Amino acid sequence: MRRQILLRVIFVALLGGGLLLWTRGKQPRDLGLSIDLTAALPGDVVEVDVIVRRDGHTIARHDVQYGKPGAPATVEMFVHAPVGDAEVETTLVYSNRPAHKSVARVNLKEETAARVRAE
To answer: Cα dihedral angle (103, 106, 108, 113), rounded to 10 degrees?
Structure first.
């Protein structure tokens, strides 16, 4: 009888611990995303529009207009989402030529900012 109760208590503790770890892994966090504009002549870029999607759903959007001074060489942003793969769509708007859109796949993780090279 005592052995059965002990086994049940151990089973419930393991189940509860597993559920706690699983929900911790699915919890949204602030994950870094870095857009490298060095190949795109950042001084000519007047607007950067970044859309982050997962499974076809938008999870973040970052749209900044820089005007005449142009964009910096790197645009940093945070995405509030669970860790995992995502699609990053970057649209660069130039002052003297057509806008350019690029799409990249990244792995968003807690330790380091995901890096996308916009061209």
So the answer is: -90
pLDDT tens for each residue of 36-78: 998 887 778 999 999 999 999 999 999 999 988 888 999 999 9
pTM of the shown model: 0.78
Q: Which residues contact 64 (CB under 8 A, 6 or more apart)?
A: 47, 48, 71, 75
Are 87 and 105 contacting, i.e. CB atoms less than 8 angstroms apart?
A: yes
Cα–Cα distance measured from residue 104 to residue 46, given in angstroms and rounded to the nearest whole number = 21
For residues 68 and 104, give the distance between their C-alpha atoms in angstroms, rounded to a whole number. Answer: 27
Beta-bridge partner residues of 28: none
